[in-house]
Amino acid sequence: MEADQQTQEIRNSVRKICSEFGEDYWRELDRNSGYPTDFVKEITQTGFLGCLIPESYGGAGLGLVEACAILEEISRSGGHPGAAHAQMYVMGSVLRHGTEEQKQRYLPAVAAGELRLQSFGVTEPSTGTDTTSLKTTAQKEGDRYIVNGQKVWISRVQHSDLMVLLARTKPIEKRTSKTDGLSCFIVDLRGAEERGLTIKPIDAMINHHSCELFFDNFQIPAENLLGEEHKGFKAILDGMNAERILIGSECIGDARYFIDKASAYAKERIVFGRPIGQNQGISFPIANAYAQTEAAALMVDKAARLFDTGTPCGAEANMAKMLAADASWKAGDICLQTHGGFGISREYHIERKLRETRLYQIAPISTNLILSYISEHVLGMPRSF
Ligand SMILES: Cc1cc2nc3c(=O)[nH]c(=O)nc-3n(C[C@H](O)[C@H](O)[C@H](O)COP(=O)(O)OP(=O)(O)OC[C@H]3O[C@@H](n4cnc5c(N)ncnc54)[C@H](O)[C@@H]3O)c2cc1C
User: Fold this and answer.
1) Assign residue 117 a region: left if phi > 0, alpha if psi is -120 to 50, beta otherwise?
2) Could you write out the three-class secondary structure of 52-98?
3) Helices (H) and strands (E) in the chain, counts
4) Which of 80, 362, 372 to mutate to test ligand 1, by most ligand atoms within 8 A of the CB atom?
5) Span from the CA of 154 to the centroid of ligand 1 (angstroms)
6) What CATH number labels 3-111?
7) What's the per-residue H, E or C state across 129-180?
8) Which residue has a Cα nearest atom 45 of ligand 1?
């Protein structure tokens, strides 16, 4: 089957699933801080969540282009892929840096939906974006590592069986480079709260199930080290490019959702005896958001294709995420404006989607840090920090 035809068929199937989980489903979850268990189960069982896992480990063996199509369709339907997307990019770290034993142990079970690999523990309260300065320590003692420290904003920990954790295994004063001395671990979250992990949900603007984590002499078996000791930053780095591209595709889905809604409403809402879309003050901003979204979508697609062929794509992944996040935020603002007062009403779903898409100016990496990357790594200007 032609690749484009296959992607279109994937889109059609995802749309069909999403049609069973309408916007009211997501609004109720948002209202009650609920987790979309049934939806996640459905996209796991149909193989979409494990699409990036190779067939030899029980997955569909697809690429990032197809994964992007899946997330975009979920967003475009009015849903929120944030409830599940981490499994796609966290899995990549296990696939690329795990031992054969780790891959055999986890990936088939993740693909089958028996294990949930939904959580990624990097950010800390006192270091934030400055990841390589993180302070959580993992000290080796015999056949285990003892973890002490704190993480913040770690999403879905309460809805995941496994988490990939980044911690310091070498004192910061002994590191030989900024990224030296950090290691990655596969943490089994089942029963972890009885073993020294305290989890505190954060009351937040969006329903993202993010938590504070406190590690108090928490033990991880040494065999759960992911990749080489002290070189864990590398193990998460290529996962970060995948994450940025996938988030970019979610933003494209959000932007298209907003543009669909805004243009439909502009055609049907009659004020002063004519459709509001007849006023160019209404139609031009929507048309402009459409053009910007289509341009951003090209960059997301370019980045995904580079990633799938193993070509370096740091610049494209960053630009894709930034352009798509800007497009969705702008489209959301225009969609709300087009709806006038009704845009504020929860019944119209726009305010929820606008809150959700706002996150992507900040996470997983903020716009400033992307501009900083382009300034330094693409344009060769001096590093600012
Ligand atoms: C809902 C949500 C879910 C999240 N989920 C996860 C998760 O699952 N796992 C995880 O590890 N993390 C997660 N995060 C954390 C997220 O990755 C961080 O919030 C993000 O990287 C920004 O870090 P910070 O919040 O510490 O901001 P800070 O680093 O404190 O930055 C604050 C502001 O200052 C700006 N800034 C900082 N330094 C510079 C500079 N040198 N130049 C210019 N501007 C600068 C930033 O752009 C930002 O706007 C999540 C966050 C949120 C809000």
Assistant:
1) beta
2) CCCHHHCCCCCCHHHHHHHHHHHHHCCCCHHHCCHHHHHHHHHHHHC
3) 11, 10
4) 362
5) 12
6) 1.10.540.10
7) CCHHHCCCEEEEECCEEEEEEEEEEEECHHHCCEEEEEEECCCHHHCCCCCC
8) 368
| Cβ 356 vs Cβ 80: under 8 Å | yes
- Is it the case that residue 115 has pLDDT exceeding 90? yes
The pLDDT, as a whole number, for residue 237 is 84
Q: pLDDT for 187-234, tens place per residue?
A: 999 999 999 999 999 999 999 999 999 999 999 999 999 999 999 998
What is the per-residue pLDDT for 323?
98
Task: Return the ligand 1 atom nearest residue 128 CA.
Answer: 26
The confidence score (pLDDT) of residue 4 equals 87
How is domain 234-378 classified at the CATH fold level?
Butyryl-CoA Dehydrogenase, subunit A; domain 3 (1.20.140)
Residue 1 predicted with pLDDT over 70: no
Longest CA–CA span in the chain (Å) reads: 79
* Per-residue tokens: 239: 């996962």
Architecture of the domain spanning 117-229: Beta Barrel (2.40)
For atom 19 of ligand 1, the residue with the nearest CA is: 363
* Non-local CB neighbours of 334 within 8 Å, separated by 6+ positions: 258, 262, 285, 286, 288, 289
Q: What residues are in contact with ligand 1 under a 6 Å CB criterion?
A: 120-123, 128-129, 153-155, 204, 208, 210, 359, 362-366, 368-369, 372, 384-385
Q: What is the rounded average pLDDT for all residues in the chain? A: 96
**Where in the chain are the domains?**
3-111, 117-229, 234-378
User: What is the per-residue pLDDT for 238?
Assistant: 72
pLDDT at 275: 98
- The β-bridge relationship of strands 117-121 and 162-168 is parallel
Q: What is the pLDDT of residues 131-166, one digit of tens each?
A: 999 999 999 999 999 999 999 999 999 999 999 999
pTM of the model: 0.97
